[in-house]
Amino acid sequence: MKTGVLALQGSFYDHVQSLKLIEQDYVLIKDTSDLSGVNSLILPGGESTAMIKIQENNDLFSGLKKLIESGIPTLGTCAGLILLAKDIIDGETSLGVLNTVVERNAYGRQNQSFEGLVDLLGNKEMYCFIRAPKILSYEDSVSPIATIENEVVGVIENNIVGLSFHPELTNDNVYLNWLSSFLKDGVNVRSL
Amino acid sequence: MKIESTFKIKKGLAEMLKGGVIMDVVNAEQAVIAEKSGAVAVMALERIPADIRAEGGVARMSSVETIQEVIDSVSIPVMAKARIGHFVEAQMLESLGIDFIDESEVLTPADDKNHIYKHDVKTPFVNGATDIGEACRRIGEGAAMIRTKGEAGTGNVIEAVKHMRSMTDGINKIKTSDQNELMSLAKEIRAPFDVVKEIHELGKLPVVNFAAGGIATPADAALMMQLGCDGVFVGSGIFKSGDPKERAEAIVIATTNYNDPEKLIEVSKNLGEPMVGINIDDLDEAEKLAKRGW
């Protein structure tokens, strides 16, 4: 069992740190050849425009998309959510596998970035929202799993989870326990 | 409950820029080229360092119009430079909604003794450093990101390498010291004790550390990444070269694939002329920007 962490740019080492804490094997993904043997995926925060550009030449996203569509557990945080979403306001669709409409930088610029008390699957924790994307709407096949002040900031659709914040910068036990079961069992994990 | 601009949030934006390239731009047109080439952020400034060097005079914060124009033209984070110690320029950049302030030695310093007290500004700061002591002093003042100073506007990577190696040596020394030695070490390197203690506990800097000053080719960017930097700033190297777009893209790809010589060869083909560059030995001491900052 090996988790692939997209490592084109961004906070991928922070996700690697989470994986080390739950003793999960991982591989950094920079190229299509890194995808073999991967049975769960993490798409980190960073700049989505840069990630899209960097993979362009070797078309890494086609391989990534096939892998996600095969049903392996996939987590995207912040920019990772943007890469997953089907419709993007103020940006381009890349993987387009999660039936949501997401707006980039919708909470404002860096001065409006904040730590906020998030209800993630029933547990409350302070998480970082950094020039975060907003989940504007989602299809019926998608369910909310995280909210802040009644606004949805995290969703799940089958094997795919998208969060607009950064649990990898907090690495609290509740998140790590959830991550551990999600990466192993994926779709079966609906609650804590 | 929401709390804005905590130190974790300031530091967090720098974490998101890791593995990326931040490019100097002087107008909206260059900012768009930078974003399309895969830059993770742009640095808005009036003149790029090579021109500041050539033209001389006092270099200050960019015009409000330039900064506004750059903010409006791209969706990636926008940084801008304030003079060392010029806290009013910083207050203005904060009000303009800049995402990161670079308190930069490339501009003419406004204070010969003090840097800005950065904790009170909502916007995060990046500061240059030549060694671990300087990095600790800036972090103590509230910097959320450090970069090597290098020697901006020269297209010569030697000073950035020197600063990065010196930083790594300093971190190793703090890491391997006995805790009884930390106060004496802090005194020796003129660093705040708390920051030294934090580095001792973490085994690394508590904030992200980028390379800057003299990076002109994909190989330079990869060199700095292999030396342990978290990402790179490219100033004059892009828009002073023969084909800025090609070179910008190549440096971005090289920064991601810094350990892959085949990819580095691939992106280094047909790049056109790099910026000409200056030998550091040809500079008078007074012309060295890295000496600014205290």
Describe the structure in your own words.
The complex is a heterodimer of chains A (192) and B (294). Chain A is of the alpha/beta class. Chain A contains five helices and twelve strands. A nine-stranded mixed beta sheet of chain A has the order 2-1-3-4-12-11-10-7-8. In chain A, strands 5-6-9 form a three-stranded mixed beta sheet. Chain A is globular and about 40 Å long. The mean pLDDT of chain A is 94. Chain B is α/β, with parallel strands linked by helices. Helices cover 43% and strands 13% of the residues of chain B. Chain B has 13 helices and nine strands. Chain B has an eight-stranded parallel beta sheet with strand order 8-7-6-5-4-3-2-9, with helices on both faces. At the A-B interface, helix 1, helix 2 and strand 7 of A face strand 1, helix 1 and helix 12 of B. Strand 7 of chain A pairs antiparallel with strand 1 of chain B, so a sheet runs across the interface.
Strand ordering within the main sheet of chain B: 8-7-6-5-4-3-2-9
Supply Rg of chain A: 15 Å
Write down the overall mean pLDDT of chain A: 94
Number of strands of chain A: 12
The poorly predicted ranges of chain A are: none
Q: What proportion strand of chain A?
A: 25-35%
Largest interface: A-B, 40 and 41 residues
Helix fraction bin of chain A: 10-25%
Strand tally of chain B is 9
Topology at a glance:
The complex is a heterodimer of chains A (192) and B (294).
Chain A: E1 3-6, H1 12-21, E2 26-29, E3 40-43, H2 48-55, H3 60-69, E4 74-77, H4 79-84, E5 85-89, E6 98-103, E7 114-120, E8 123-129, E9 134-138, E10 143-148, E11 151-157, E12 160-163, H5 173-185
Parallel strand pairs in A: 1-2, 1-3, 3-4, 4-12, 5-6
Antiparallel strand pairs in A: 6-9, 7-8, 7-10, 10-11, 11-12
Chain B: E1 2-4, H1 7-17, E2 21-25, H2 28-36, E3 41-44, H3 49-55, H4 64-73, E4 78-83, H5 87-96, E5 100-104, E6 125-129, H6 132-141, E7 145-148, H7 158-176, H8 182-188, H9 193-202, E8 208-210, H10 218-226, E9 232-234, H11 236-239, H12 244-256, H13 261-268
Parallel strand pairs in B: 2-3, 2-9, 3-4, 4-5, 5-6, 6-7, 7-8
Helix pairs in contact in B: 2-4, 7-9, 8-9, 10-12, 12-13
